[in-house]
């Protein structure tokens, strides 16, 4: 199980998911954009649809399909985020999926997760969605919210 989902089980008050999306819809959306999304992010999106977490973070929804979930706000989708980012200098070789304390994206050709600075330059690189979450959001917010030091992913 992904570490972020395990944390959400233990502290659901910190995570407001947008709502499940069938994996086939996400895969169809990715094909329309001609992008390849890592499997672990596809799995996360299919289970949650993305969402708001901690006090300042959003993992954007991979489609602009309206959601009935209470946390979903129009524009909290990857397409809207990336239009804004590309208009402001992000190279199309990245697909932004998270914004908050920093911007996070997938480096599409390398299939790596990255955090970017305000000039869209890579600050850190992670091989998996779990590593990205554990070394970014969880590292920044875990102690503040009393999350356990270690994540039991069984």
Structure in words:
The chain has 154 residues and is of the alpha+beta class. The protein has a single domain, classed as SMI1/KNR4-like (3-Layer(aba) Sandwich). 33% of the residues lie in helices and 19% in strands. The protein is built from six helices and seven strands, in the order H-E-H-H-E-E-H-E-E-E-E-H-H. A seven-stranded antiparallel beta sheet has the order 1-2-3-4-5-6-7. Strand 2 and strand 3 (57-59) form a beta hairpin. The chain is globular, with a radius of gyration of 15 Å.
Short description:
With 154 residues, the chain is of the alpha+beta class. The chain has helices at 3-10, 23-33, 39-48, 78-87, 129-135, 137-141, and strands spanning 15-17, 51-53, 57-59, 94-99, 103-107, 112-116, 122-126.
What keyword list fits this structure?
7-stranded antiparallel β-sheet; SMI1/KNR4-like; 6 helices; 154 residues; alpha+beta; single chain; globular
Helix and strand arrangement:
Blueprint: H1 3-10, E1 15-17, H2 23-33, H3 39-48, E2 51-53, E3 57-59, H4 78-87, E4 94-99, E5 103-107, E6 112-116, E7 122-126, H5 129-135, H6 137-141
Antiparallel strand pairs: 1-2, 2-3, 3-4, 4-5, 5-6, 6-7
């Amino acid at each position: 199980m992904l570490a972020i989902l395990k944390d959400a089980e233990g502290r659901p008050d910190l995570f407001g998911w947008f709502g499940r999306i069938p994996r086939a819809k996400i895969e169809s959306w990715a094909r329309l954009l001609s992008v390849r999304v890592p499997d672990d992010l596809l799995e996360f999106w299919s289970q949650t649809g993305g969402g708001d977490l901690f006090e300042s973070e959003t993992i954007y929804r991979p489609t602009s399909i309206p959601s009935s979930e209470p946390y979903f706000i129009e524009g909290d989708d990857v397409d809207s985020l990336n239009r804004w980012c590309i208009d402001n200098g992000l190279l199309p070789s990245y697909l932004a999926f998270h914004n908050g304390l920093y911007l996070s994206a997938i480096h599409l050709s390398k299939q790596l997760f990255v955090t970017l600075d305000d000039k869209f330059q890579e600050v850190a690189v992670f091989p998996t969605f779990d590593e990205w979450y554990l070394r970014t959001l969880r590292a920044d917010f875990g102690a503040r919210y009393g999350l356990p030091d270690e994540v039991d992913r069984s």
